[in-house]
Amino acid sequence: MNIIQSIFLGLVQGAAEFLPISSSAHLILSPWLFGFEDPGLAFDVALHLGTLAAVIFYFWKDWAEIFKITSKNFQFSIFNFQSISNDSIFNSKENVGYPKNILYLLILATLPGVLAGYFLESYAETIFRFPLLIAFTLSAVGVILYLGDKYHQHRKNLLGITWKDSLWIGLSQAVAIIPGVSRSGATITAGLFRGLGRQAAARFSFLLSAPIIFGAAVLNFPQLVKSGLDIHLIAGMASSALSGYLAIKYLLKFIERSSYAVFFWYRLGLAIIILLAYFLRG
Prior knowledge:
Layout: H1 3-18, H2 23-34, H3 41-58, H4 60-72, E1 88-91, E2 96-99, H5 102-124, H6 131-151, H7 163-175, H8 183-193, H9 198-227, H10 231-257, H11 261-280
Antiparallel strand pairs: 1-2
């Protein structure tokens, strides 16, 4: 793999991690479609560290306030999963409020993904990587995203999120272990079906990405250490961090004035390209 391929895959990973188009599908399909070797697990870990840096850098003030408020009001019980009316953490710069129990809601939403990763990791690295399966999941989840965006009422902001909303979003994240589903696509779609506004669903999805990406990176970090850092890994990590940050920033701005329909059409188009490539290659 040359340096151009490293940067290209980093840009793809960073953007696709946060846009609802499936980063795992793009990382699998890019070498397959363009004819270069799969860079391997260590490179994937480096790219995910880049996207982790992006989401932490973008939301660092939010995370700092979340941990600060949580530490002052620490009481870990099932009652913490209930939304607290008019009691919030407020990001004055972006005019966004979070319930004070937001950390507990994020923990609850993370658990299904952790369990899915633990029990289904071997499948995710083998049979789930089949191109026809990816084409199906890209198109099927794209349709569900389109329907959720077009026909459901999107009235709730994050101050109205409940533990039931969080659990449903977490269960959808578990399904995203299948390439083509998309972690952000699944969690945003689940949020829309639970009545969250477009931006609220995306913001919760982005916050939720931090613990799951961190956990996956820690689990596979020995592979990165074993392979050692080189210019290709560093270039991929840097480009994924940059494109991830820009994807978060501009998606949040984009959905203020538009819908998620463009991502449905993108997913459908990519699924058609996969099918054509698969059958033309025999």
